[in-house]
């Protein structure tokens, strides 16, 4: 997921100032891309070589931005996680803190009022906005509604308020991660659908994971043909996607082609299918990442890199693919490193602690 | 308690998928058991040798699953702790985090609304459900009741809601730990009784500790003859159990036989009597574990391994016994290790930090 972010966000963010118009950012990106292509092309070609197994380390070196003292806060990445509800608070934290651990400058979380104090308590590094609402909460928060019954009008009012809170920030973000710990409250998911439309309006790239995939699987048009959308399903989430979109079962014997068809069917969004070997496709090419890794399957690894943000000047036509490859490679390296230290007791937090060392090992900051 | 979990959960969990039917899981287990028995039998016989002191390390090696990169999240264990109220939040945390530190993939806590934010804040690794209700809380949460007074009907409504929240998850769990930090609120305990019935309906194994034992001692039929129930009383909890079930006092001179009679009297549930030497019986055999250990008696050690989850392919007819032996041995080793590091200042958290190293020392992950 990380690298998906990386490159996706790179599409819009590479020279971002806060605040600056998406259009301007995109123009600047194109210019830098052309300049950059001269220096990065050889590496890149190697990375995208015809072998289906990608050269993850080479891609990571390609997409990781050089640190520049002349830059100011925000230029190395401003991301927002949309997730965190009454039940789930760990997932959005893992996504948001991973972004910072990988080099992002600012990491926001938009969650429900219940989840906010808890997520804040995990780390003072995050900016947490308690703006989302769950059905059960609306009636508690609103005596009028409690007595009069929950009207459609009331519902719309609350919804508009939620969207308004996200709207005023949206333009500043370089990438969203939608879904970690989102839960499945119908009212909440309705709001998140509108947040996706908002992101598309501003051309803000987004990665969809966890409960965000539950939403998208039921309303595939939310992401259809949006080139800046990346889906990162695990085994079960992928199964539901295949059943819903391709009307068939997962075909392990033909995994690559099936993934390509799925991505193509959804209009060329990029999909990272997580597994023992990660498979990545945008409907055209298919790449795999199987280096490193750990046998531990503790919950949270799926979120761990959602928040990762890199800057890339990649001239590739499929930056999202590069993003996925780098994300997959880095998570796997960090997980492997954490496992050597903690063995069976390895937890997601231990893997996050290894992100920096793993990245430094692949592409030293100086 | 750990090992009880281990083996108990193993009964249903060894090849569990999320979600998958208990029946399927149990069938899969039986198959794996048969396959495994060939390789594990020699070790096992040694472990179950006629000496009353068990070979805890050998049992641990027997019940600890080998890590398999082909597995996906959840297959190494999904457990849930039922506990955590307005007063107590540490105990359920210790139980749930220990499960993860010992190799489980997912660890849930079902607690009261007051306890949830606190338990969540201890660690982003846990999934905490704020669903239990205490008497004092019900009227606060319900305006109608506040105005009309608390009726039996209202009480039932709230109870049904609580059970419903647990019901929708129950089938996914491989083992429950019922009791850590539960408190003694009558309404809450009434709900927990129904949760036990629910677990039995789904054939989900459960370990009963702390205030769960207070509940069970007063309503012994809740666990009578349930083969997947494990009780883990400390000195005082054991004393009450003996008085209630055997109508006599604890007979230290005849501890083993008395424990056997107690377990037999409750229909063959497994009991781990915690003490300087841990005694374990299922109404037939009696085993003891006295290796390692620490002179520190800081609160929380009783909870520390409740959450532990292992996978075992044990062909034994008494996996719960093996579970108890392994749990007892591992906790004692971790406690001993923590004491060498922290001496008088050793806390339960320090012991949890030593679980991974202790387990690795006994059966290396790779």
From TrEMBL, chains A, B:
The EC designation for this entry is: 4.2.1.93
What GO molecular functions are on record for this protein?
ATP binding; ATP-dependent NAD(P)H-hydrate dehydratase activity
Name a single GO biological process.
Answer: nicotinamide nucleotide metabolic process
Looking at its record, which EC class is this enzyme?
Answer: lyase
- Check the record and name the Gene3D superfamilies matching this protein: 3.40.1190.20
Among Pfam families, the record links this protein to: Carb_kinase
Catalytic reaction list: (6S)-NADHX + ATP = ADP + phosphate + NADH + H(+); (6S)-NADPHX + ATP = ADP + phosphate + NADPH + H(+)
Cofactor(s) the record lists: Mg(2+)
Residue ranges of the YjeF C-terminal domain?
A: 56-362
Keywords assigned by UniProt?
A: ATP-binding, Lyase, NAD, NADP, Nucleotide-binding, Phosphoprotein
Q: Which residues bind ATP?
A: 274-278, 293-302
Residue sites binding (6S)-NADPHX per the record: 181, 234-240, 303
- PANTHER family linked to this entry: ATP-DEPENDENT (S)-NAD(P)H-HYDRATE DEHYDRATASE, ATP-DEPENDENT (S)-NAD(P)H-HYDRATE DEHYDRATASE FAMILY MEMBER
What role does it play? Catalyzes the dehydration of the S-form of NAD(P)HX at the expense of ATP, which is converted to ADP. Together with NAD(P)HX epimerase, which catalyzes the epimerization of the S- and R-forms, the enzyme allows the repair of both epimers of NAD(P)HX, a damaged form of NAD(P)H that is a result of enzymatic or heat-dependent hydration.
Family according to the record: Belongs to the NnrD/CARKD family.
* Name by which UniProt lists this protein: ATP-dependent (S)-NAD(P)H-hydrate dehydratase
Its gene?
Answer: BnaAnng23250D
